[in-house]
Specification:
Elements (H helix, E strand, L loop, with lengths): L7 E9 L2 H10 L9 H20 L2 E9 L4 E6 L8 E5 L2 E5 L2 H10 L2
Antiparallel strand pairs: 1-2, 2-3, 4-5
Amino acid sequence: MISPDRHLGVVFNGAIYNFRDLRATLERQGYSFKSQTDTEVLIHGYDAWGIDGLVARIQGMFAFGLWDERLHKLFLVRDRLGVKPLLYAEHAGRLAFASTARALRSEVSLKR
């Protein structure tokens, strides 16, 4: 999912259990939503609170990668218990990440 201004992008696997409460908080802060998904809460939550503030607020089982185009920075985050795996590998100067070893192997082998 990409933010409306296209400076944030997120890939997400999992479920944010408290996303409705977080969404209501963000709406009170002026954010508008185009979907009913927990994924969109990640984008607006990062924009409002930064990565540390977002991660401190979310509850659930999840793994996600969030790209901030303005900072040229990638954040890789997983739930505190590691229910949803987050695997990554560097190959030939490129970073690949996935939720399964099979997907990661496919991604890395495609880049050879």
